[in-house]
Amino acid sequence: xxxxxxxxYALALVAYAWxxxxxxxxxxxxxxxxxVAAALAHTFVIGMQTMEAGDVPVAGATxxxxxxxxxxxxxxxxxxxxxxxxxxxxxxLPLLVxxxxxxxxxxNAVVRSAVLQGPLFGLHVSSLLFAYASFALACVIGITxxxxxxxxxxxxxxxxxxxxxxxxxxDRMNQRAIVIGWIFLxxxxxxxxxxxxxxxxxxxxxxxxxxxxxxxxxxxVAVLCWAVYSFELFAARRIxxxxxxxxxxxxxGFAIVMLNFxxxxxxxxKSHNF
Length: 274
Known about the structure:
Blueprint: H1 3-22, H2 25-53, H3 61-83, H4 89-105, H5 119-153, H6 167-202, H7 207-210, H8 217-238, H9 243-268
């Protein structure tokens, strides 16, 4: 079933790239329509998986990646519809297509462990996924900020200047995405700590529960990610690190997110390989 959203995301990517290069309003509307169709198809897939499993499919790295793609698509659509700006779609869609290819070509049937039952686990994972979606938006906004800034600095107002919002708008959007992501990341980490403490009480014999500490790469890198974004918020408000510095920090932070989200989740963690 994951092939249908993947195909629609790929078609939307082509349409967004065409719109970005030609600035054709009709193509832009078609791109948005295709992305809405992809998000709806993805919603249907996740709904079917939820009905089959009895809970939102977030147990297991592959299922979490699919849910993350869905949340990122919805978050971007909300941003696009509230700002009436489609230029960033060409930067977001490659990430959606690349990540959605993982559950499409490598589906996994996760048997829901007893330790994953309960609302705390769902809140923990959902909060982190929403935070990661916000950070992905911030990263893309930061990249577009740097591209536009370099073009303006070189006094060569051409390709990006004609297609992207102003630097002030991009900086404001980046800060908003970081704040939202930081709030959900903080909630996710706190709830995860409470859930892990409870899990040790009734599943102490599970080696994955015993491995839940800062020594596990998954948990350590999540805390490192929180520290990076906390510093970015502090720097923006206390020492005036906006603009390019904020854009670069957003890119660094999201690189850490992706490191934690894919390679560590699949190959290195001992506590989150459910």
